[in-house]
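Section 5.1 Outputs to date
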Amino acid sequence: MYDHSPWRGRIKPYAPTSWLLLIRLFQHTTTGSVAGWPARPFLRVCASFSMSSQVKKPANSIWPHVAGLMASRVLGAANSGLTQMVRQRRWQCAACRHQVSLTSGTVLHNTKTPRTLWFWAAYLMTTDKRGISALLLQRQLGLVRCETAWMMLHKLRRAMVNVAREPLQGEVEVEETWIGSTQAGLRGSRQLRGRKASLVMVAVEKRGHVSGRLRMAVIPDFKRITLNAFITQHIAPGTTLYTDGLKTFTGLEEASYTHIPGTQPQRTDLRKGTKSVVPLADCAVGNLKEWLIGTHHGVSRAQLQVYLDEFVFRHNRRKTPMAAFQTLLGLGTGYTPTSYRRIRGAKDLVRSFHDASGHDLVYS
């Protein structure tokens, strides 16, 4: 049947209003050039636009910041002719040719994987009590390559930390532990040189005999400034802290904490039934190690922090798995996208704490 539409062979200039309401144009910046795209018949080309121009207008000069998702104001702005690219599922400005999509600037930025598979990955990742590995996700979703499943899980893990989350409060148990296999030739549990295992700090709220919210982070050493920086960043002042007999847990009273130290029994005594001074923290560490070994069969030292973030995310929402799924999708929309190359080398994992003077203690 012959198409008598005036837009036959051309791209429609405007998308429906319901689609435009889903796009927050004022949150996106220019991400790349589209000079390689074939010429398209635009209705309203900006007079100052030139194909030979090396510098493009910034997107915010053509799509100004508006309060809320107001498609009518976006369409009514000067030189803001929008063109819908149906096959690519994108929208392009007729003035600067800046392109946006529903997933621009999110964890799904520039993805070629169908959105339904991303939603299934987020659902399985948050609702399965045992967690899910990259190989199992590949089998569940029918992916061709395991690297695709690995990349999807790591992108979701990097979106599991809410920057605006509240610190722990009330009564909190704090403990340090080693994550890694035993290694011969080391002198004591405090030796750092030559050790392949990673040092992890654990803080868990006490709610009677059960554990509440949890925080975990990889730390570089046992120094007092490092331990105190972790505590001040993740635990609110006025909290009662229960720790073991590590001598570097000092100066906490000066930071408005109530410190109750204890003497941790030896491992042989703990195996015989002696009660630990931080039982909830020990339980969290045991569950973490069993999860890393049982589900993932071990993880790399460079990527350990994101696995800790996933464990903390799932632990804090273990009673509401569907809420965890919705929360992950919400956090993913505001997460800055990370390329596969940076994820592969863990170049984006730069951890930092703040000491008592406000300075950053940054390490990778």
